[in-house]
Amino acid sequence: MRVISDAADSRAVGEALGADLAAEGLRAVMVLSDGLNVNGTTLAEGITATVGPGVIVTGGLAGDGPRFVSTWILADGEVGDQRVVAVGLYGDRLEVGHGSRGGWDPFGPVRKVTHAVGNKLFSIDGRPALDLYKEYLGERAEGLPATALLFPLALREPKQPDRELVRTILAVDEDELSMTFAGDIPEGAHVQLMRANFERLIEGAATAADITLANLDGGSPVLAVAVSCVGRRLVLGEATEDEVEVTMEALPAGSVQVGFYSYGELSPATTGTCELHNQTMTITAYRER
Question: What does the pLDDT average to over 213-234?
Fold first, then answer.
């Protein structure tokens, strides 16, 4: 466990946790992090840099529903905020499967990030980012940052145009007209607003489960850890149980599923190296041979 009070320390905290766990036989790492005082992008980079490319790193950032006030992590028998916990799993008999999918649809013009520092976005197309975002939200802008969960950003970097990530806002600064996200927003990247498609959210959850099982051999039971974004829960409302049910239905008979709703999901699903995702259903399945 490590304490984190500033997002700028995220990579160093990740490196320290990775160093604590790095040892012969390390097979997987489950990360449970504070959701408001962290940059999930650099946290993942720090951990993977020290545990090595052969270790599967997954997990999530704790959520506080639409409140964005405080998030809590259990560590050493105590519950507190500003903490990051990493659990290492070891041994050749351990099998790990993982998968992650979203289900949001982009809309509106594609725009360019013209000024950003780490996970803080200042301008898009030369305009203050917060002003532009509020234009699209209309009356919903009064509910920021909570209403931003319903309209995340699709992010593509020019050097990797086929790789899309999704970013969700954690905080806004009315004086700077800036927005703070759960992960990095690189300058020069192209962004586009997204909105929910109810059916595709459920399909995305089912696909995440299918991908997870495709990484495993055979059909014996697993322990599945499901991390779903708070924004998905807000959209699905009373149908929230639907995405949980479709993942459970896809798992082998006798499996057990646990999980939580997050401000960000950690998974190597896109590139093979752990990175931050938002607005996804992310599943990690464990079993012993």
Answer: 93
Please tell me the predicted confidence (pLDDT) of residue 161: 76
- pLDDT digit string (tens) for 175-221? 999 999 999 999 999 999 999 888 999 999 999 999 999 989 878 99
What is d(CA 161, CA 251) in angstroms, rounded to the nearest whole number? 33
The pLDDT value given to residue 267: 97
Neighbours of 237 (CB within 10 A): 8
Task: Decide if pLDDT at 225 tops 80.
Answer: yes
Q: Euclidean distance between the first and final Cα of the chain, in Å?
A: 29
Distance (Å, whole) CA 261 – CA 63: 6
What is the per-residue DSSP string for 213-274? HHTSSS----EEEEEEEHHHHHHHGGGHHHHHHHHHHHSPTT-EEEEEEEEEEEE-TTTSS-
3-state secondary structure of 196: strand
Domain residue ranges of the chain, discontinuous segments joined by + = 2-102+198-288, 105-196
Q: Is 21 left (phi over 0), alpha (psi -120 to 50) or beta?
A: alpha
Distances (CA, A) of 114 to 59, 121, 137: 31, 9, 21
Is 229 in contact with 246 (CB distance < 8 Å)? no
